[in-house]
DNA sequence: TGTTAGCACTCGCCTATCGAGAGTGCTAAT
DNA sequence: ATTAGCACTCTCGATAGGCGAGTGCTAACA
């Protein structure tokens, strides 16, 4: 069942050609462009075999062949070689990324913008992996007699806050007390843990004013925790996909847009994924059957945390894009390392 | 130069028909559907006059007439009658909006979602008018020895925060000192004021540690203030426009998307606008020449603050949409009024 | 004088048709 | 096992004809 050397060569040629031109590729053009030393007829026979094995498809009788998800999978796993970044891409990453190294969220957003600019695909980026994050402290800050700010801070510096308006005024003391009270209760616990176990929590407290305030704050607290799992997902460059031939049909474009707008789906997708660069092709995604999702992780202080990714049609330059993402995330991780660990700020390890 | 009664009737009929069907409307169909007591030939003559005056255009010789921006403007100013909301829309607004009255940002986002659902257009909403907002206080909160959170709170409860990572550790005391120091300096000043006058501010301070910390924090402070002018703009339902006949062309759709993604443009647009429901038609918008923007203001505690709006092709149901927006913003303002002012939470004034 | 009926004319759009081009799959020769 | 040759298929673009909707003009009419 293994493929012969020649079959691999042909398959590789077809993928390269199709990725480049977005058009079904025929035996003749393969024979011409890539000299494999065989005639079109031979290639046709091999192609026929490859199709039978599920690596190629015919869009219609008598159009060329198109690689299947299976073919891309084989390519990504076995055939693909790492690509050196172009000098331009490297320069862009080095220059644009360092500029705002001191601010976390901004840096991540910039990284996503950068990625979509370089790859000409839609990109997204997630700040520190929130499902593993633990609560560091909770603050309640006064605005006016009925308005207050609820602020939840995670151990990696992740923050979410909501402004709350109560029906009755609160007192300064009860506010401070509740802040401390909640911090003690939740400090060190993960968001997931709190969300699963706290929903129907007792609001019990000896002091009445405090109990009342807590009763008012808790529903928002829960909702804000839920937000914390979603809110730090940046999505950029979605209009890039309009330039791709697979999305010239308005229906395709609409479908893509609608899915891309579903932040929760991406968050879900990201949480389940392992370290490093991960490629999910076509059918391997439950929805988005004709899209490929490539994600990569970056680290903060060496700890595994955030993800960044691109999404586009299965027809994409896997070699280039994975290389770019590796370089970019290395660079990011380097930027987020404690200063002093390494002398220079330009991470690029695969130089 | 004034239009005759009959011309107004005909113009109104053309607008109604075109808004409904999105197709150039001919004299015959007007005569048939709206009985004005005149023949198609008469209508043709009037149409010809209306075209000469700039209220109608021909897409091509021998297709029906299409209303111009000028016609819509006339319609909105003089012809249009308030529409009663459908029971369904009213119910939706009442039910969905009350649900989360206690949380500001969430409510506004929901309002935008709701608006786009009801109108089938793209919508956006802005939390309290940030250019008038003054700084209430500034907090610096510790995360770990090198990481801290910078938090800016406005007088209407608007909050922005950034996580900062410094190159050198800071001390607890200097952090608290700087918090107070900055709060004293900026409390009560508007964002604009600070941004314009503070850029090259001295970092002077007698205590060295404080001066150093301040030097590290100030650049982020400025950037975060800038963020505060943009960040609270929610945009929803952009995929709705794919269902409109004016956006079946991929190029049109792309143009729309690209503009819709430009948050700063919307923010700009919103800041300049007056109270109440405002309609800006076609050419009246510098960009988006074939779009209409409708915005409305809502109030918090009776003070003028936030805006909410829809955007779509100039062909839209002005009467319905303005009525919906009036109802919705009244409802919002009512929800954000101090409790006790009025007994019931359902605002709807134009019942 | 304003209104209307009639009619020729103009376009845009849909459909059918045709030919070119690209590619396959099979067969027979090497 | 490989290749050349050939018939066949299918898509795509261009072209032409016909239909329908609508205008603009003229002449008749109240």
How is the largest sheet of chain A built, in terms of strand order?
7-3-10-9-8
Structural class of chain A: alpha+beta
Regarding quaternary structure, how should these chains be classified?
A: homodimer
Shape of chain A: elongated
Radius of gyration from the alpha-carbon trace of chain A, in angstroms: 26 Å
* Low-pLDDT sequence parts of chain A: 342-351
Largest sheet of chain A: 5 strands, antiparallel
Strand residue percentage of chain A:
15-25%
Of all chain pairs, the largest interface belongs to:
A-B, 46 and 46 residues
Order of helices and strands of chain A: HHHEEHHHEEEEHHHEHHEEEH
**End-to-end Cα distance of chain A:** 38 Å
Enumerate how many helices of chain A there are, as a single number. 12
What is the average per-residue confidence, as pLDDT of chain A, rounded to a whole number?
A: 85
Helix coverage percent of residues of chain A? 40-55%
How many beta-strand segments of chain A?
10
Task: Describe the structure in your own words.
Two copies of one chain form a homodimer. By secondary structure, chain A is of the alpha+beta class. Helices cover 46% and strands 17% of the residues of chain A. Chain A contains twelve helices and ten strands. In chain A, the strands form three sheets. In chain A, strands 7-3-10-9-8 form a five-stranded antiparallel β-sheet, with helices on both faces. In chain A, strand 4 (135-142) and strand 5 (147-154) form a beta hairpin. In chain A, helix 2 (27-33) crosses helix 3, helix 5 (87-98) packs antiparallel against helix 6 and helix 5 (87-98) packs parallel to helix 12. Chain A is elongated and about 90 Å long. The relative contact order of chain A is 0.13. Chains A and B meet through helix 6, strand 4, strand 5, strand 6 and helix 9 of A and helix 6, strand 4, strand 5, strand 6 and helix 9 of B. The first copy, chain A, binds a DNA duplex (30 and 30 nucleotides) through residues 24, 26-29, 38-42, 44-45, 47-48, 58, 60-64.
């Amino acid at each position: 069942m293994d493929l012969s050397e020649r079959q691999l060569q042909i398959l590789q040629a077809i993928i390269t050609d199709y990725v480049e031109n977005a058009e079904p590729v025929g035996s003749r053009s393969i024979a011409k462009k890539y000299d494999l030393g065989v005639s079109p007829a031979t290639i046709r026979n091999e192609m026929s075999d490859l199709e039978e094995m599920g690596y190629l498809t015919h869009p219609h009788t008598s159009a060329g062949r198109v690689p299947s998800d299976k073919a891309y999978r084989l390519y990504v796993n076995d055939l693909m070689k790492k690509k050196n970044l172009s000098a331009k891409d490297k320069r862009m990453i080095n220059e644009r990324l360092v500029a705002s190294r001191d601010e976390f969220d901004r840096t991540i957003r910039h990284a996503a913008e950068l990625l979509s600019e370089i790859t000409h695909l839609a990109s997204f980026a997630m700040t520190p992996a929130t499902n593993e994050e633990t609560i560091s402290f909770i603050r309640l800050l006064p605005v006016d007699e009925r308005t207050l700010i609820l602020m939840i801070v995670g151990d990696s510096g992740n923050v979410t806050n909501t402004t709350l308006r109560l029906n009755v005024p609160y007192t300064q003391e009860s506010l401070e007390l509740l802040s401390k009270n909640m911090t003690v209760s939740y400090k060190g616990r993960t968001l997931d843990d709190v969300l699963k176990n706290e929903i129907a929590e007792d609001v019990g407290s000896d002091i009445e004013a405090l109990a009342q305030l807590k009763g008012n704050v808790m529903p928002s607290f829960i909702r804000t925790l839920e937000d914390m799992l979603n809110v730090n997902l940046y999505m950029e460059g979605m209009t890039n996909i309009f330039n791709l031939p697979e999305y010239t049909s308005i229906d395709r474009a609409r479908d893509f847009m609608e899915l891309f707008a579903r932040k929760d789906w991406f968050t879900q997708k990201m949480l389940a994924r392992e370290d490093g660069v991960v490629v999910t092709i076509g059918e391997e995604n439950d929805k988005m059957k004709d899209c490929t999702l490539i994600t990569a992780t970056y680290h903060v202080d060496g700890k595994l945390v955030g993800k960044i990714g691109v999404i586009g049609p299965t027809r994409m330059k896997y070699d280039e894009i994975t290389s770019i993402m590796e370089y970019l995330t290395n660079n990011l991780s380097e930027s987020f390392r404690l200063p002093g660990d390494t002398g220079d700020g330009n991470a690029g390890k695969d130089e």
